[in-house]
Amino acid sequence: GDSVTQMEGPVTLSEEAFLTINCTYTATGYPSLFWYVQYPGEGLQLLLKATKADDKGSNKGFEATYRKETTSFHLEKGSVQVSDSAVYFCALDSSASKIIFGSGTRLSIRP
Amino acid sequence: DTGVSQNPRHKITKRGQNVTFRCDPISEHNRLYWYRQTLGQGPEFLTYFQNEAQLEKSRLLSDRFSAERPKGSFSTLEIQRTEQGDSAMYLCASSPPDGGAFFGQGTRLTVV
Question: Among partner residues A44, A98, A100, which is closest to B103 by beta-carbon distance?
Fold first, then answer.
């Protein structure tokens, strides 16, 4: 069945460092791909999405490109801030069924 | 209405009692999901509706769990004879036709 695998955390970076969180997927169809963020004590928020191959989703300085050839959707940010500390979830939606989430990557940014 | 609304936000119940949670999705979103999340884990799928039809239910879900979505609007999730292992955050989400999900703030259930 469909699945999502993302890099395990925690990831700890200094402020202004470059961020990459890896995400790969397995799907039989052509899913839409998403990154969600969960700040401490809060609910899940949709961060960005891409609905077809080669699409780039972007929001709040974060970017991810839908790579069909490598079945990947890695999350990147050029310069992280302390306020980016959160748990990040990669997810896929095949529209035929449930949305499938990865296990989450905890990100901590040091001042 | 700007988001998915869940009630109550917190519920403490004694083991063996029944509980019911409500979710009001974003208007015009035809898909509605229930997930469960425990500390340090990702959301675990429970069930999914398209309009009023329940299209999928997790095999992990025991018969004590039931969900409804009458008229394709709000949804309720009932847990009968609660157990301590049911303690978790119960998340509802709704989805527009182009995919993705918008989550509510969740209902935190504590079974004592």
Answer: A44
The DSSP secondary structure of chain A, one letter per residue, reads --EEEE--S-EEEETT--EEE-EEEE-SS--EEEEEEE-TTS-EEEEEEE-STT-EEEETTEEEE-BTTTTB--EEESS--GGG-EEEEEEEE-SSS-EEE---EEEEEE-
Pairs of residues, one from chain A and one from chain B, whose beta carbons lie less than 8 Å apart = 55
What token pair was written down for A27?
């799907």
Q: Do A102 and B42 touch (CB under 8 A)?
A: yes
Nearest to A93 among B56, B100, B106 (CB): B100
Between CA A82 and CA A92, with CA A86 as vertex, the angle to 5 degrees is: 135
The Cα of B88 is separated from the nearest Cα of chain A by a number of Å equal to 13
pLDDT per residue as tens digits for the range A36-80: 999 988 889 999 999 999 999 999 999 999 999 999 999 999 999
How confident is the model over B31-68, as pLDDT tens digits? 999 999 998 888 999 999 998 898 888 887 789 999 99
Residue A97 and residue B103: Cβ atoms within 8 Å?
no
